[in-house]
Amino acid sequence: QTRVLTGITTTGTPHLGNYVGAIRPAIAASRRADVDAFYFMADYHALIKSDDPARIERSRLEIAATWLAAGLDPNKVTFYRQSDIPEIPELTWFLTCVTAKGLLNRAHAYKASVDKNNELGEDADAGVTAGLYMYPVLMAADILAFNAQQVPVGRDQIQHIEMARDIAQRFNHIYHREFFVLPEALIEEQVATLPGLDGRKMSKSYDNTIPLLAGGAKQLRETIMRIVTDSRAPGEPKDPDSSALFMIFRAFASEAESAAFRRALEEGIGWGEAKQVLYERIEADVAPMRERYESLIARPAAIEEILHEGARKARAIAAPKIAELRDAIGLRAMS
Ligand code: TYM
Predict the structure, then answer these.
(1) Which atom belonging to ligand 1 lies closest to the Cα atom of 9?
(2) Is this prediction's ipTM beyond 0.85?
(3) pLDDT digits over 181-220, tens only?
(4) What does the function comment of this entry state (predicted)?
(5) What's the gap in Å between 24 CA and the centre of ligand 1?
(6) Where are the alpha helices (DSSP H) in the chain?
(7) Residue with CA at minimum distance from ligand 1 atom 16
(8) pTM above 0.90, yes or no
(9) CA of 298 to the centre of ligand 1 (A)
């Protein structure tokens, strides 16, 4: 059995990038008989980015409903909320004590903040919390607490998985035992980074996302119509390979559909019409999910129950693991 694990930070509404980068491949993996899947809402991670309790709670509900609407079977997948697993912050501390500070200095998210401060002539660490700095260690604990082997993520998370490997290796080395399995990122090469409305990576922090389910078909269509294109008029040939619109289409289409759309662009289909084609392609996948989503989101108590059961199953794995570690590192009970 292969253990597969992934999480989504509860700071916003799931967007197309979350879906094609993580949710869709994770659900496909969970249907394989040889896979033991662990999927969760990363709400401890959310505290690093948001101090708005209502937003975090709303996001958690939306993300949970999205996973379920997209086909996650809670009887088959261990589906939980990170903050229901007290073993995770405990493991985070054990890992913190073997993690080189220099490793964390190299994390992209931290470095981006430092670079921006330097550009503005501010103190390098201005506005940087210790939480942001420690982000990769918390994520390593998420993965290592369950000895996950494969982690389906978008390309932006690869560095974090590599850091989890480094931290696991260091811990195993220091304590002379293979406590942790070394995890690997599972990347969909076709869609490793889905572009957003402006062509940059689709991301909550760039405010360029297309929501997957929230807002209904109307909002999906309206947002797709806002994708930035060049100014070529209908009839003029378009370059599919430099078009965010085409990249997004490809993430939802078969090879044959993509080839046909490529030809249509090269033959000069107007951007407005191309956007309508994209909208219809995505809506065909999303419409059945949206119906389930609407009914799930109206029953938060039922979702809560599923997550409680998931936490129970997750802790049954994580608690003995932490007990074993406590013994090994010198925190054994006196008897
Ligand atoms: P988060 O919440 O930013 O994103 C959730 C997942 O969506 C993927 N993703 C994308 N994939 C392709 N194209 C895009 N434009 C795009 N935008 C987002 C992300 O790569 C991710 O897989 N730190 C993580 C959450 C996390 C986690 C974990 C993941 C916490 N602990 C343990 C895996 C294992 C994060 O903030 O993802």
Answers:
(1) 2
(2) yes
(3) 999 999 988 777 999 999 999 999 899 999 999 999 999 9
(4) Catalyzes the attachment of tryptophan to tRNA(Trp).
(5) 12
(6) 16-18, 24-30, 43-49, 53-69, 87-96, 101-105, 108-119, 130-144, 158-174, 216-224, 244-252, 255-266, 271-297, 300-329
(7) 17
(8) yes
(9) 26
